[in-house]
């Protein structure tokens, strides 16, 4: 019967085990919490042994009971029954009934009882042991019992509680050691007045005043000494307006100067070299690309030569010793060098370019070979133009620079990952291709092509230029053959290779396994 459960009158305690919680509270002050009323539903399956409760107080209830009683040997006191109207229907079956000898007057008796009872007082009933089974449904309100005394039990409870508006007294917590991690998101909180210690605050406020009117300032006499040391830098003046000269000699002098410039007799600028083609190249760069350049300031010439691997027929191939065509990269992925010979431990110099934001930057670095083992470059590259032995002993094996890939005998198994090599028996790469940085133009003055003296055949050559983000374009063509000998093409006017550009020499032949050589040369012009 739930109404008499100790759960209805005192807090539940979990006796399912021993749990020690040590709490330490310091200066904890709380207000009595205000909790809304809660609707609570609990289902308890309890087995209680040897518990005793105090006297129960039960309010007046409406009770309907059906009793089927069989009584033996009971004695009651004298009942006192007030006048009542009783209506009874009896259906009695008596067995083993023993009574004194009744004395009944002869009578004819008809009774109709209409009984209403109130304030019936009986003595103590004595009822012998009996086997009784009752099924009772109670609805109780305001049931209050004394605190129950319940022995220790092992109790497992699952509670699914929804609380609304309950109110408890002030909690009292024992000293405990507690570690808590709180993830708090405040929403709509109001804090008291903040107390902030004195601070040193520096504030710079740029002010713009509009229509500011002040009274006449009053200044005391001052003694002011100022010393100004001024250095003009990048002063821009307006373009002066100059009338047309009316002096016939001045017009003649101007025409004479223009004629001299056309035949190479102009006054040389401080950063020009005394070569008409090169000066024309510098001026053409400024006119075409908007960059003022100087060969004199760069002070660097370039002779780039390549030797092909054995050529196939019917396709264009780059004049370089790796063979086929290089796979050009858009990232700095050329990261390793190694040799096909386990004995190579020389220092090699690698020249190339890094790529960032579609701009090339020239890089020169060294690496010490470790035989057939991979050696990391100090700076990963997007282009590699030259590699050579910068040590005191000659290389034995083939030296390669490549992307990170699988090796066999110190050489990548995937040929497309190789970007330059030094063939075995040589000390320098043979790559008829290079790249120019964001700071350099190239003024090409000639190129050259030839078939190896050991072979016979004809080859067509194509210098090709590609600006950053674009495709290779053929910038010229020429033919060389065994019968005709080598071909050298001087360039007048020179060929301009823009900054941030790749250049290569490719060739094609109808003679299988030919080996060819290609060279281009010129001067590098620095962007000022």
Task: Describe what is shown at a glance.
The protein has helices at 248-262, 276-289, 295-298; strands spanning 293-294, 300-307, 317-318, 334-339, 347-356, 359-368, 375-381, 383-389, 399-403, 407-408, 411-412, 418-422, 433-436, 440-451, 458-467, 473-474, 478-481, 487-497, 501-509, 516-527.
Percent range of helical residues: under 10%
Most strands sheet: 6 strands, antiparallel
Q: What best-fitting shape do the alpha-carbon axes yield?
A: elongated
Q: Any idea what the radius of gyration is?
A: 56 Å
Q: How many angstroms does the end-to-end distance come to? A: 102 Å
Instruction: Please mark out the parts with pLDDT under 50 across 5 or more consecutive residues, or reply none.
Output: 1-15
Sequence of secondary-structure elements: HHEHEEEEEEEEEEEEEEEEEEE
Q: Estimate what percentage of residues fall within beta strands.
A: 15-25%
Query: Pairing-aware structural class of the strands and helices?
Result: mainly beta
Number of helices in the DSSP assignment: 3
The pLDDT mean sits at 78
Beta strand count: 20
């Amino acid at each position: 019967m739930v109404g008499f459960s100790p759960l209805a009158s005192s807090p539940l305690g979990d006796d399912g085990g021993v749990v020690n919680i040590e709490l330490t509270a310091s200066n904890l002050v709380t207000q009595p919490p205000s909790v809304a009323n809660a609707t609570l539903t609990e289902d308890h399956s309890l087995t209680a042994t040897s518990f005793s409760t105090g006297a129960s107080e039960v309010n007046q209830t409406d009770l309907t009971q059906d009793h089927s009683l069989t009584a033996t040997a009971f004695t009651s006191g004298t009942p006192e029954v007030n006048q009542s109207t009783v209506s009874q229907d009896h259906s009695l079956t008596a067995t083993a009934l023993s009574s004194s000898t009744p004395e009944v007057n002869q009578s004819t008796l008809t009774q109709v009882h209409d009984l209403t009872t109130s304030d019936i007082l009986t003595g103590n009933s004595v009822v012998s042991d009996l086997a009784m089974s009752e099924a009772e449904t109670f609805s109780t309100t305001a049931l209050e019992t004394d605190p129950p005394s319940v022995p220790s039990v092992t109790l497992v409870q699952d509670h699914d509680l929804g609380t609304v508006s309950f109110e408890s007294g002030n909690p009292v917590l024992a000293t405990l050691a507690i570690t808590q991690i709180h993830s708090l998101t405040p929403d709509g909180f109001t804090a008291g007045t903040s107390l902030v210690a004195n601070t040193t605050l520096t504030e710079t406020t740029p002010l713009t005043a509009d229509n500011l009117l002040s009274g006449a300032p009053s200044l005391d006499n001052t003694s002011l000494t100022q010393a100004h040391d001024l250095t003009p830098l990048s002063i821009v003046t307006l373009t002066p307006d100059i009338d047309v000269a009316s002096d016939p000699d001045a017009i003649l002098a101007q025409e004479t100067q223009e004629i001299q410039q056309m035949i190479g007799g102009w006054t040389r600028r401080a950063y020009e070299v005394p070569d008409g083609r090169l000066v024309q190249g510098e001026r053409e760069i400024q006119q075409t690309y908007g960059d003022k350049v100087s060969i004199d300031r760069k002070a660097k010439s370039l002779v780039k030569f390549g030797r092909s691997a054995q050529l196939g027929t019917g396709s264009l191939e780059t004049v370089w010793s790796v063979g086929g065509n290089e796979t050009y990269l858009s990232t700095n992925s050329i990261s390793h060098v190694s040799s096909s010979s386990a004995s190579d431990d020389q220092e090699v110099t690698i020249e190339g370019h890094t790529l960032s934001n579609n701009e090339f930057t020239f890089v020169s670095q060294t690496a010490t070979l470790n035989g057939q083992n991979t050696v990391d470059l100090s700076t990963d590259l997007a282009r590699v133009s030259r590699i050579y032995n910068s040590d005191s002993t000659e290389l034995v094996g083939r030296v390669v620079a490549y992307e990170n890939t699988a090796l066999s005998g110190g050489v990548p198994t995937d040929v497309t990952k190789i970007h330059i090599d030094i063939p075995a028996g040589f000390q320098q790469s043979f790559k008829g291709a290079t790249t120019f940085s964001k700071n350099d133009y190239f003024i090409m003055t000639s190129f050259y092509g030839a078939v190896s003296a050991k072979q016979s055949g004809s080859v067509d050559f194509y210098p090709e230029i590609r600006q950053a983000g674009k495709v290779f374009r053929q910038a010229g063509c020429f033919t060389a053959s065994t019968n005709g000998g080598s071909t050298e093409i001087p360039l007048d006017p020179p060929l301009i290779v823009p900054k941030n550009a790749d250049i290569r020499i490719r060739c094609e032949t109808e003679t299988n396994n030919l080996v060819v050589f290609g060279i281009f040369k010129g001067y590098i012009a620095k962007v000022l």
